[in-house]
Write a structure and sequence with these properties.
The structure holds two protein chains of two kinds. Chain A has helices at 11-28, 30-50, 55-78, 80-88, 90-95, 101-130, 138-163, 170-180, 182-196, 202-231. By secondary structure, chain A is an all-alpha fold. Chain A has one domain (2-231). Chain A is elongated, with a radius of gyration of 19 Å. The two termini of chain A are 27 Å apart. By secondary structure, chain B is an alpha/beta fold. Chain B is built from six helices and nine strands. In chain B, the strands form two sheets. In chain B, strands 6-7-8-3-9 form a five-stranded parallel beta sheet, sandwiched between helices. In chain B, strands 2-1-4-5 form a four-stranded antiparallel beta sheet, with helices on one face. In chain B, helix 3 crosses helix 4 (114-123), helix 3 (98-109) packs parallel to helix 5 and helix 4 crosses helix 5. Chain B is globular and about 45 Å long. The chains are: A mainly alpha, B alpha/beta.
């Protein structure tokens, strides 16, 4: 290759820049930042009001309620992942930066998880306590949610890449992502349920970890391909 | 327009269809160092589409785009480092300041200090807007910030889509100066504009017919 490429920015520096940009944008728009979190808190608060305040019933339902609410609230934030940048032309500028579209996709998705997934993990003990979960299950719940939300962010990146060119793509995004997220719901709720019952959650956590590794490895390629098609 | 020039950008027999419309019908061009190519033609003749193909955002159904003799697909990273594309939209994030907008896009291409970025904003006459969110800037100021980004990237090849849009008289003169300086410093420019260019360099024209 005879073409000179002096002065290229290293991939790690570029990745850091993309993540910092996404964080700066998220904190400039607190409504987008807080909406999924408030949704998560409200939905989980509605269940005791609608069913019964009986602690034993709430404790039995807690894993399912918590995970369904976490999945739905994560979906709320996914629509913004690429759409805003595609609409104002900044995605094209980043795609032409010479850094490779995959790097942009990975940086944006990871930053998305940092501001939406991690926030959700951090408030989950509050919700767990409100649903009568014993404190010894909080660690498992937070670990499973951390892996689950990261996996969901990767799956969501594929869906967001495919629907970024559509005017009302959020409905299609849900239809693409939710079926793929079923294993997360099953293993995540199961891990939390076993931790509440005092049993070992290791089996379910291993499955979640495997899903997390598989999506973290393969989803960036799929999301990049989806986005490239849409950019054309 | 079809002479071979391995020292520059070459486009050969591009064909693009949009549904049933044959938008680009065998377009060829070449641009060498120190040349400005003005692409013009009526609305809907594929001028923007041509620029998007040349910058690599759009894959042609037929034809090739080569940079220094290499197909751009094979030297994508190198080509993108040497090229900058200013689309019709200014591509600025409304919630970021002008300086941050430059920092986060230019920074992906080359390491530039904030002081240098401020210098580029000063060159385009918008240094006073550096700390203002892009959403409070006028359309002309946003265009000038976008032009500062073109300068800051320090690319040899400029691909500009209607860069005079929203600029006032002084802005148009500034743009003409920037184009002249770039071409005189052995840069390449492909510019899509609807009107005649008042630039003191040799301009080659490519007309796209409807």
């Amino acid at each position: 290759m005879s073409v000179n490429v002096q002065g290229r920015v290293r991939s790690s520096a570029a990745m850091g820049l993309v993540i910092r940009r996404e964080m700066a944008l998220s904190f400039r728009r607190p409504d987008q930042l807080l909406q999924p979190l408030v949704f998560f808190l409200i939905v989980t608060t509605l269940f005791p009001l609608g069913l019964s305040p009986l602690m034993s019933l709430l404790r039995d339902m807690a894993p399912g309620v918590l995970w369904v609410a976490a999945l739905l609230s994560s979906l709320l934030a996914l629509d913004h992942l690429f759409k805003s940048d595609a609409d104002d032309g900044t995605l094209e500028q980043m795609a032409l930066s010479g850094q490779g579209l995959w790097l942009i996709v990975v940086g944006k998705t990871f930053a998305h998880w940092l501001v939406s997934g991690v926030a959700l993990v951090l408030v989950s003990p509050l919700v767990g306590a409100a649903l009568g979960m014993p404190a010894h299950a909080f660690g498992t719940m937070m670990l499973s949610l951390a892996m689950g939300t990261l996996t969901l962010s990767w799956l969501g990146a594929i869906g967001a890449g495919l629907t970024v060119g559509l005017r009302r793509g959020n409905m299609l995004l849900s239809l693409i992502v939710l079926p793929l997220a079923m294993p997360l719901l099953i293993f995540g709720a199961n891990a939390t349920d076993r931790a509440i019952g005092g049993e070992s959650p290791a089996g379910a956590l291993y499955f979640l970890a495997a899903l997390c590794v598989i999506t973290s490895t393969l989803a960036p390629f799929a999301a990049t391909a989806a986005l490239r098609i849409t950019l054309e | 327009m079809s002479e071979r020039a391995p020292a520059g950008l070459d486009v050969d027999s591009l064909h693009i269809w949009r549904g049933d419309r044959h938008v680009l019908q065998g377009v060829s061009l070449s641009v060498n160092p120190g040349e400005l190519l003005h692409v013009w033609g009526p609305n809907g003749t594929g001028k923007t589409t041509l620029l998007r193909v040349v910058c690599g955002l759009l894959r042609p159904e037929q034809g090739t785009v080569t940079w220094l003799g290499h197909p751009i697909d094979r030297v994508r990273a190198e080509y993108q480092s040497a090229m900058t594309f200013a689309a019709h939209e200014t591509a600025l994030k409304s919630d970021l300041t002008a300086l941050e907008n430059l920092r986060y896009t230019v920074g992906l291409k080359r390491a530039v200090s904030d002081q240098k970025l401020l210098d580029y904003l000063a060159q385009t006459g918008v240094s006073g807007c550096a700390d203002l969110p892009a959403k409070v800037l006028s359309a002309g100021q946003r265009r000038r910030v976008a032009m500062a980004r073109v300068l800051a990237v320090n690319a040899r090849l400029w691909l500009l889509d209607e860069p005079y849009t929203n600029l006032d008289g002084n802005g148009a003169k500034l743009m003409a100066n920037l184009l002249e300086n770039h071409v005189k410093n052995a840069g390449f420019v492909v510019i899509v504009a609807h009107h005649e260019l008042d630039v003191a360099v040799n301009i080659r024209r490519l007309e796209l017919a409807s």
